[in-house]
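B., you asked whether I could sanity-check this one before it goes into the benchmark set. Here's the sequence:
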Amino acid sequence: MRKRISFLCLTLAAIGMLAACSSNSASTEEKSEKKSLTFVSNFPSDTLDPQLNYTTVRAGIAETLVKVNEQLQIEPWLSKKWKTEDDGTTWVFEIRDGITFQNGKALNAEAVKHSLERTIKESEAMKSALKIKEMKASGQILTITTTEPLATLPSELVHPNTAIIDVDAPDTKSTPVGTGPFKVASFKPDNEMKVKKYKEYWGGEPNLDEVVLTFNDDENARTSALQSGEADIVYRPAIESLNTLKKDSSIEVDIQPSLRNQMLFYNSRQEAFKDKNVRKAFDVLLNPKDVVDTALAGQGSPANGPFLKSLDFSNDQKTKTYGPSEAQTYLEKAGYILKDGKAIKNGKQLSFKLVTYPYRPELPLMSQMLQSEAKKIGVKIDIQQVENMDEYMTTKNDWGIVTYSLVTAPRGDAGYFFNALYMEGGAFNVGHFHEPALTSIINKLNKTVDQKQRNELARQAGEIAEKETLHSSIVHPNNFVAYRDNVKNWVTTKSEYYVITKDLDVK
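And here's what the prediction gave me:
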């Protein structure tokens, strides 16, 4: 075959058409080149099990029954439509026809049922959130019965941990088989993964042939990778590099207000933090504006509560006075006396461990600021950085405060936040608080469908949480992404759930 092609080219050259042959060869070669993109983030991925990590959805490998759009409204995804047949205890989901897993297996209600059964088996948090009593599958119809009325079930099914996978696939932790536009090609935990296009994707063939996703918790290294051309998209480059990147004509910078809240969680199993006044002391110790200016380099806004002010369920909070003197007043109410530069009660100085984590670099900075201000009121804080914060704060009780970055309303609803933080079995109920009045409001919220009523109940819940200082909302950081100017169709989503999509492309 090669000899025939060479002979043809020589013949064409003899009649003055070699240029045409060369042009055609170049065109063929160009078409055969793979469209590849490299994405560098600070998302740690030690597993691809969707019940344990968001990466499977972020990387376009798996999808959920329902998704959230940029207006924070839920919309169909693998489920075509849904309805409740009673008071919110029985839900019927119609699964789309014509969808296959990446191994060719058809997606039907039975496959969805098996996947969700695995979800509630592997994740106590999702078991608590979904409250599934039983599921029945018939063709493309999945009927879910919950243990109690749950008006937010469709919203809960947006969560990446409910991603639908083929549970019969051999290795769900490193090569899960989903229905998304990309399938796993290789995976190195906490280092790199490669995905390649799934040509038969039900939503249409993806533009990219492959995507390389790498993890690096060093924001400067992420920035350098973009500037050198090693990366096409970088999630959260170094804050101090943003102005420089904006001046580079080959780079685009996208900055958006995020749904995140950088906050303090308190541990009520530590004796000191059982006292509301101690919690209030740390609630007012740091001025959020100082945190924005120092730890966030101006890329954020002070938080008046867990939710952005623009959200309908955000409760109005009174203006606070911040600083060591105000914090000292609360410590005195808790029975602490400042003696020889130490906050003393029952002959002991108030001291505790504060735990933070590095892949959100503003959190260690915020922790150091808190430590410095606490010293002024005689409180000793020891800071410990851990790699896996979720595991640490849920399995250990040797800490008094943790600094945490939480997307508080990823599905455009307040229910997620209050259920996760303050209900028994909630994914982030690490403080072990139990407030009967708050629990009662959350139970009403879970049973209420009308959105106006839900917003009012959410504001009431927020007022109780604020009054009791069950957590402290410090700042809302901006979300920022930088990418090369040859990248097409990138969207910085508010939820941070959807990253690699079928529409993503390179010129």
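One thing to flag: The first strand starts at residue 36 and ends at 41. Otherwise nothing jumped out at me.
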